């Protein structure tokens, strides 16, 4: 399984961070229609005549140019196109500008043309007398040549049996890292042997870009547009995903996190765990009402890449995916009801959320989507010193179950807790999968009837949202930080959410979608707003 680089700060991470920081700085300093500074950015990121990344300073600057365009939401160009990097960049000045699809892109001239699905014998072969590799090969593809094992690639079916039995681990199976990380089999080779993404199969989970060791795959961003919006007269509020715990380092406790967003230019910030709680309550009610009378099983809805995969590969089971609005959308609607006319930026770990927010039905709720990695670039651009940030009331309102949406199993657990509260004698069976390969297996079994009556949870990223493509710290550390944030929540379970008026409306038979358009916002949070309620400080 690809992904061994996750959590290691590499030169690829460094390049991405520098590009995001420079694009953010460009937007913060932008005025009077002058984007000429764009031409200087590749020389800021790759200064001098040599580069620490490779042996070709010209190629690295070309890669930076295209990463910069993608970070501004622009389409990248091929190596055959001759044009200034700022060509068409004036489109980015509009705060309402959405990126043009596709979201995930391969910068072709940065691709290393990695070997894909090749079984080969290395120099570690000892030419042993037993040669078990020959004995297990089902196609007779392995022979002995000059005292070493030799694989006939025309006969090899890449089954990997020889890899398993070699006593010296001298036979390896090489896969293209991006293709290995893709659970949709969406990556193949073009006519030049470079990675190519089938956009009809891609669900924008971003695992390919997180696992490419050459930084040749990148997603488009709205950094420039979001900053332009914050510089205007309309307030922009950040709604922050539960996976944020620990993403910006140990010194950035929740109280300082809120100060950080204000220092970046946001009017304020709120945690998406609020919407996660409401999502859990609605999915619990839907499950009890629908399964098994109307649906054989129900699957959670909050991961857009999982939901997209299910609808692409299992269209007959698509109706089994919960119709509940996602935590991102629910929280955004709450904010817009509370502050009419404002803009909302979702900040999270996920590339696929950009795809979700670009849908016509969601655009009015979520104006921008930024990853943690992109926000860290904004922090670098503003040269924010975390030690100097004031500590204020932390973002709060979410329960422990809502905050645990960020880790594998957390969504199903929250829904089950709600069902048990409403129907104590009801037995709930659950099954979960994280990583799209495992998600496919889960739905294959569900299609075959193995999970009738079950609640299924799917997460596209291995480990859950804490492993999203836009995260900036090791998955295990993120998981521990989320669990700590969960433990200090004022309320443990989603059904204990302080926004009880929503639950009352649900009892009357209305969906959250209905309520979000009709309820008096002062009754949702109280006249003083969501940050004035009772909360236990999460300062550890």
Residue-averaged pLDDT, rounded? 89
Largest sheet: 4 strands, parallel
**Share of helical residues:** 25-40%
Helix/strand structural class: alpha/beta
Q: CA-to-CA gap between the ends?
A: 34 Å
The poorly predicted ranges are 532-540
Rg result: 25 Å
Report strand %.
5-15%
The total strand number stands at 15
Strand order of the largest sheet: 10-9-12-13
Number of helical runs?
Answer: 22
3D shape: globular
Describe this structure in words.
The chain is α/β, with parallel strands linked by helices. Helix content is 37%, strand content 11%.
Quick synopsis:
37% of the residues lie in helices and 11% in strands.
Q: Which helices and strands occur, and which strands form pairs?
A:
Elements: H1 11-29, H2 41-45, H3 57-71, E1 104-106, E2 118-121, H4 132-136, E3 142-145, E4 148-151, H5 161-165, E5 171-174, H6 177-181, E6 187-189, E7 195-197, H7 207-211, E8 217-219, H8 223-230, E9 236-240, H9 254-264, E10 268-271, H10 273-290, E11 298-299, H11 304-313, H12 327-338, E12 343-348, H13 352-357, H14 360-363, E13 368-371, H15 372-382, H16 400-403, H17 410-422, E14 429-434, H18 436-447, E15 454-459, H19 475-487, H20 500-507, H21 512-518, H22 521-525
Parallel strand pairs: 9-10, 9-12, 11-15, 12-13, 14-15
Antiparallel strand pairs: 1-8, 2-5, 3-4, 6-7
